[in-house]
Amino acid sequence: MTRHVTLEGVENFRDFGDYPTMAGRRLKPGRLYRSAAHGRATAADLEVIAALQIEVVVDLRRKNERLRDPSPGHPTFAAAVICNDEGDENEDTWRAHVRQSDLSEASFRDYMFDYYRKAPFDGRHLDLFSRYFKALARSDGPILIHCAAGKDRTGILAVLTHHLAGVHPDDIVADYLLTNDERRLAMRMPIVAQAIEEIAGRIPSPEALRTAMGVEAEYLHTAFAAIAASHGGTDAYLEGALGVDAALRDALEARLLA
User: Fold this and answer.
1) What does the pLDDT look like over 59-72, one tens digit per residue?
2) Is the pTM above the cut of 0.90?
3) 120: Cβ–Cβ under 8 A, 6 or more apart, which residues?
4) What is the architecture of the domain spanning 14-250?
5) Spans of all domains in the chain
6) By the 8 A CB rule, do 227 and 233 touch?
């Protein structure tokens, strides 16, 4: 299966379904999509996305991110959009880090570990993740989740989906690491460098940029170790923090699994 959907202005767009489960079933293809932001989408990109007939879009970005980089819509766009505007009174943590750090590889990696420890418990994420699972259970068409880069907030939510469906941990990590597509990173690097320079007045080394743009399996392990420490395990977190009870799990399995 070709997971990546090749687009001109939207990166990291891919199908994260069509994985076998440990119970002998399989996630359906063409139901679960993830991507980075769509602010640079071309008219051709919008045609490709429209052809997927996406029913729900979950925009995990903060309000100020969406205002800086609004998503254009195809003339026929009719998907429901789930977003959350809470907590925009302060500068987001990424921009604050870029402004204050030495922009080294170590600084970006330390930021990511700290981010992944906290992200599963952020109030906005709890709301958005919970609404995503409810929408996923009741929608008939495909669903798209995205944030700015399509790697961290989006990555955690995709992993939670895979865990709930019973995808093998090795496949979960492998799918998460598809973000590290070298072609994507090479194309994206000048854009990220420019964005960082606008915030900090300087540009990180290529190695530090690569660290800032990529993902590492250890980030996931950090997030789910924090979930285990807080809730006793991922299933308990799904139920206690996100409201994914037995009835909702049954509905999700019926919707997603072949």
Assistant:
1) 999 998 999 899 99
2) yes
3) 156, 223, 226, 227, 230, 237, 241
4) Alpha-Beta Complex (3.90)
5) 14-250
6) yes
